Amino acid sequence: MSLLPEHLKYALSHEWAQIEDDNLVRVGITDFAQQELGDLVYVELPDLGRKVSANESCATIESVKTASDISSPVSGKIIAINQVVMDDPEKINDSAYEAWLFCVKADDLSEVEKLLSPTAYETMITT
């Protein structure tokens, strides 16, 4: 397993969240999640402008083994999607912490405090 980036927060549902300027939260899936899914073949991302709630399923990733829903870790509005991963889902397998999926303009950044630290996430996936 790769080391978990310290600057990210982690959801119980295996998404990572990177807090950026102006209440922007960049979202992807963890390396653990992509390893469990296997070779990714399809990514469906939310529409730009869509309002999402924290923990709401808003995207789908399919692998050769299964499909998995992806949830937003925070409430807000989708303001960007990563077309690159839609066109080439294997980029997530290659580098899960660089291949972000979508960005949410968060309504309330305090929701991020409910996410796991790298240490807490690592404990969850190894026990």
- The tally of strands reads 9
Low-confidence stretches: none
Oligomeric state of the chains present here:
single chain
Order of helices and strands: EEEHEEEEEHHEH
- Radius of gyration of CA atoms, rounded to a whole number: 13 Å
CATH superfamily: RNA polymerase II/Efflux pump adaptor protein, barrel-sandwich hybrid domain
- CATH arch. level architecture: Beta Barrel
Alpha plus pi helix count: 4
Global structural class: alpha+beta
Q: What would the principal axes of the Cα set say about the shape?
A: globular
First-residue to last-residue Cα separation = 14 Å
Query: Percent of residues in helical segments?
Result: 10-25%
Which strand order does the major sheet show?
A: 1-2-3-9-8-5
Mean pLDDT over the residues: 96
Proportion of strand residues = 25-35%
Describe this structure in words.
- The chain is of the alpha+beta class and 127 residues long.
- It has one domain (15-120): Beta Barrel (OB fold (Dihydrolipoamide Acetyltransferase, E2P)).
- It has four helices and nine strands.
- The chain has helices spanning 31-37, 83-87, 90-94, 118-126; strands at residues 9-10, 15-20, 24-29, 40-44, 51-52, 57-63, 67-71, 76-81, 102-106.
- The strands form two sheets. It has a six-stranded antiparallel beta sheet with strand order 1-2-3-9-8-5.
- It is globular and about 35 Å long.
- It starts with 8 loop residues before the first strand and ends with a helix.
- The model has no long low-confidence stretch (mean pLDDT 96).
